[in-house]
Every structure is written in structure tokens, then in C-alpha cells.
Amino acid sequence: MDEETNHQPNSRDPIPPETERAIKMIAGARLGDSVSINELMSRVYPELKRRAQWLMKGERVGHTFGPSGSELVQRVMEKILEAGGQIFEAIESEQELIRILTRRMRFILVDYARSTTKHGKPSPRSRVSFDDIERSVRVATIDLDEVLTTHQALLKLTQVDADAATALELRVFAGLSNEEAAGTMGWNLAKFRRTLKFGMVFVKEFLQGPAA
Fold it and tell me: How far from 74 is each of 66, 71, 79, 105, 199, CA to CA, in Å?
């Protein structure tokens, strides 16, 4: 059997209680049920805060989004509520919700970086270190000065390979290890690493382009 073949649940397999509960909450959230929305957001909040806290680690004192990550998570939740909860139509699981909200946090940081960088453009010196990304450890926290450049690279990569962009995003912005990111995407580690490597090569070439 191919080592990359993941187990596909049979339609007759019983749905785990927690999964069934999450499905019901998402269905309720799509209908605008406030109880379902509140419960669903409460379930994903700890993981979102962990990712936001990692992202803000080491930033300057007095930053708009504090080191606890709470402010960043609060901002992204405000954004989805302002949009009328349309995000719930695009998800089928808690993991998908977390992934989308992690991306929204990146967009918020990009907006912040644009507001604090001259002309809203990244410095040619702003570069993300990829030395640890292929390893099974969390990469060093990126500085907000590098957010714009990384964001632009991921947008370009998304047009070529959306999965590779997601893999790199989970490593760089969400602070997940290879194993954690692979699990989030529902892949085995070998497939994740190959996809991540493609994304890294693409982004490195982008960063070494004319702006370098």
C-alpha cells in the first residue's frame, strides 16, 4: 500500500461524539445561532491564542497587539462578526475554521505593517530565515518588518500551489511544527514535507528576485 495513502473513513464508520458536536455547532452558526457561534469560537479560541502568542513573541513593548496574543485574536473575531459570520459557510470542521482565522490574523498583521512602513512597501532587507522550517521544530518568530514581504510571497505561491502556500503559512505564521502542520492539513509527514519544500524553493526564488 502506498505510504501516502491515508485512511479514508467509511460512510458506515460511527462519527466521534466530538466531531458530531462540532458539525452541529457549525450548522447552527451558519443559521446565525448565537449559542452555536459562541460555543464554536470558545472551542477554537485556545489554539488561536496559542498561534497569536507565538506570532507576537519577542515584539517590542507597547506594540498594538500585545505579547499575550489576546488582542490579535480579539481583532480577528471582530472582523468575522463584522462580516456577518459568512466564514461559517466556508468550513466543515474546527480545523478549517482555525486555519482560515490564522490566515485572517496574517492579513491583520499585513494591514498593520503597511500602516507603519513607509509607502506601505516592504524593505528590500526584510527577509524571513528559512533555516529551521524543514526541521520538526517551530521556526523563530518573524518580525513584523518581514510580514509584507512574506505575505507577497505567499500570495504568489497561492496562485501556483495553494497547498504549498498553506503548508508554509502554518509553519511561518502559525508556528506549528511539521508534525502539527501535517496533522492540521490531514496529511502524513512525508507528503507535507515534500509540499513544504516546493513552497520554500518557490518563496526563496521570489525573495531573491529583483527586490533583493
Answer: 11, 5, 9, 10, 30
Is the confidence at residue 156, as pLDDT, over 80? yes
- Report the distance separating Cα 50 and Cα 29, nearest Å: 23
Query: Do the Cβ atoms of 177 and 106 come closer than 8 Å?
Result: no
Mean pLDDT of the residues in the chain:
77
Rg (CA), the chain: 18
In this prediction, residue 144 has a pLDDT band, given cuts at 50, 70 and 90, of: low
pLDDT tens for residues 38-96? 999 999 999 999 888 877 775 554 556 777 888 889 888 888 878 877 899 999 999 89
Cα distances (Å, whole numbers) of residue 165 to 2, 103, 157:
25, 11, 6
| Helix 178-185 with 189-207: angle, nearest 10 deg | 110
Cell of 38: 459562541
Domains and CATH numbers, the chain: 15-116 (no CATH), 117-212 (1.10.10)
Number of C-alpha atoms within 13 angstroms, CB side, residue 23? 6
